[in-house]
Amino acid sequence: MIIINILHIGIDDTDSPDGMCTTFLASQIINRLNDNGIELLDYPRLIRLNPFARFKTRGNGGVSFQIENDDKAGLAREIVLEEVEKLSMFDCDNTNPGVIFYEGEITSEMEDYAFRAIYEFITIEDAEEFGNSIGCEIHKFKKGRGIIGSIAAISLPLTDFTFELLAYRSSQNYGTKRQIDYESVYEMDKQTFPDTFENIDYAEKYIAIEPKTPCPVLYGIRSNTVDALIKAKEIVKVNEPIVDWCIFKTNQHTDMHIQKAKNISSMKQFGCYEVVGEVKNKPSIIEGGHMFFYIKDESGEIECGAYEPTKNFRKIVSYLLPGDVIKVFGGIGEQNTFNIEKFQVIKLNDIIYQNPICECGKRMTSAGANKGFKCKKCGNKIESDDKVPVKIDRFLENKKFYETPVSARRHLSKPLSRM
Ligand SMILES: [Zn+2]
């Protein structure tokens, strides 16, 4: 067996909301490496971190790749640092790039660090201390926040993974309307789904492969296999130049951010979980179109939200009734509300209790506390306060999963098409 000494390279936080994209920077680096006879050992990796990181810091994804640590590794390091210097959005206050070089095997300690970066928050200081302790070469630009994601991008084990093909625009077109032939995207989805996924939100007529920011990405197609991506790229037609494209191996759509919570009260703010609870009250819509309800268990209760951008998912949520037992998947946001990404029905409550029906056929009304029921039509009275159980038909189905639409889906959230 040949043992290759590996150099791991991690890069993060080079972009800003106004431009650039760390994946594009990586693809530029990879091109220059290839021009110098340096090949990657595997696909470059795009690793998404805690989706709530944006509330505390910016940036929630890093890029990494591996090369052989041979006599050309020194040149590779120079190329990486040069390109980060050249292409990062240094003018943006919130852009604080970090680059990591690490030689050797990924240890279990590093894997633990990566999961912490996905589940929790890591400070720049903690990341630097950890990086030093494992012998990383650390390069911080400005505040160097990118080292947090860079170390995670190198270290995360990918037991489940997907691929994303990113096509890049000519720089003169940045910020202009993307010239994508939408018909061809529908055709691509028809021919390659479910090997590719998250292409189109049919209900919203939303083309999900098209970014909404002025970044260099023309489109990004997500898939379980590289073959499906190659096929998809051939089908999608665009009316502007593609200057480059690159396939990344990623933890997107794997639910890797979700931890199994023991119970409701054990969950922490900004964490992402799956947890089972009983619906406490009927979901209702508040101002702004957001829908809320509570779930409870023996440990406590938490408010759950299906927000306006989740569109028709709110309609599904509205069918929940008190007494339903559901497993919710999602994360706890700024308002301490559980943002639902999807839910599974564990046990529907198909019995509701209603006022009795009078002999005359009219439903009776309460005659007051502990005074039974009375009929407003014929004046009949019943002394008992017992409501009557009625079996009802439910729109929702036991064991079934229900998810937010493609247009509202988070990078890490696993779609039902992958489950
Ligand atoms: Zn009556």
Corresponding CATH architecture of the largest domain: 2-Layer Sandwich
Rg (C-alpha, Å): 26 Å
Number of domains: 3
Helical residues, percent: 10-25%
Determine the mean pLDDT: 93
Percentage of β-strand residues: 25-35%
Shape: elongated
Number of helices: 9
Q: How far is the first residue's CA from the last residue's CA?
A: 36 Å
> How would you classify the helix and strand content by structural class?
alpha+beta
The hetero molecules present are:
zinc ion
**CATH fold group of the largest domain:** Alpha-Beta Plaits
Give the biggest sheet. Answer: 9 strands, mixed
The tally of strands reads: 24
Low-pLDDT segments, ≥5 res? none
Just give the CATH class of the largest domain: Alpha Beta
Structural commentary:
The protein is of the alpha+beta class. The chain has three domains: 6-155, Alpha-Beta Plaits (2-Layer Sandwich), CATH 3.30.70; 162-250, Glycinamide Ribonucleotide Synthetase, Chain A, domain 4, CATH 3.90.600.20; 259-350 and 394-414, OB fold (Dihydrolipoamide Acetyltransferase, E2P) (Beta Barrel). Helices cover 22% and strands 29% of the residues. The protein has nine helices and 24 strands. It has a nine-stranded mixed β-sheet with strand order 5-4-1-3-2-11-6-10-7, sandwiched between helices. A five-stranded mixed beta barrel has the order 13-15-16-18-17. A three-stranded antiparallel β-sheet has the order 20-21-22, with no helix packed on it. Strand 20 and strand 21 form a beta hairpin. Helix 7 packs antiparallel against helix 8 (226-235). It is elongated, with a radius of gyration of 26 Å. The model has no long low-confidence stretch (mean pLDDT 93). Bound molecules: zinc ion.
